[in-house]
């Protein structure tokens, strides 16, 4: 019960990594404010949580809605201790020589401005809380070429540096800020990006995870719970000396291929 009496805000909470993290933080005692554009998924999560998880419909591309989310969390519980800025999707997948400016901007709004504004509007409610922690979802796409199209990767690089800058600027308020770089994690993100019909999602996912699995030193694939564990660690007092950095949770895929000679 590391988070008893604490309030956590989680975005992208209706599915995948966000959902697993809501469940993990609630299991360890937190009151969780779960935010997503998926009203059905978010409401279902809240309904089965024994009053530990509250859903607030929020589009993280809409700054007014992010502010309303943070204000709602603080009004409901008295303040915010943990923020997991996690909502996301693949964004515009066009290569750099084809992408339209609108697609670029939309991807930045979804994946980078959302995190900046999540921090911006949470912090007034985090000041004075002991050991507050912000965790942002970046990606291994921020660590090297080859894992995603340009816009997504650049936005996630932004999340890494934003996490460093925010850590430096917010340390005086006793707020730590870190990022996580997940590798290939079994969620809806790839099937959504490929826009495959619902009944073909599992098959589309299976192909992607098979390719990833072949390249990962740790076999069996990454699950949302693997990321939730890292969020819980970074949010806890066990990580009190960790700020302004990123944790890679990828089964070793970024080690790269091994060449024997
Ligand atoms: P997911 O599709 O299972 O979950 C993403 C959630 O974000 C969904 O519930 C979706 O409705 C929500 N969302 C999308 N746009 C939103 C918006 N504008 N406002 C609010 N909510 C919105 O995917 P996931 O894999 O759990 O993705 C979570 C985060 O992890 C994303 O930031 C993604 O970029 C990152 N990530 C995922 C992987 C992976 O392999 N799954 C790897 C690296 C990074």
Automatic annotation (TrEMBL):
Coiled-coil segments: none
InterPro entries tied to this protein: NAD(P)-bd_dom_sf, SDR_fam
Gene3D superfamilies hit by this protein: NAD(P)-binding Rossmann-like Domain
UniProt entry tagged with the keyword Oxidoreductase: yes
The keyword Protein biosynthesis belongs to this UniProt entry's keyword annotation: no
Keywords noted in UniProt: Oxidoreductase
SUPFAM superfamilies given in the database record: NAD(P)-binding Rossmann-fold domains (SSF51735)
One Gene Ontology molecular-function label: oxidoreductase activity
Family, as annotated: Belongs to the short-chain dehydrogenases/reductases (SDR) family.
Descriptive protein name: SDR family NAD(P)-dependent oxidoreductase
Record organism: Sphingorhabdus pulchriflava
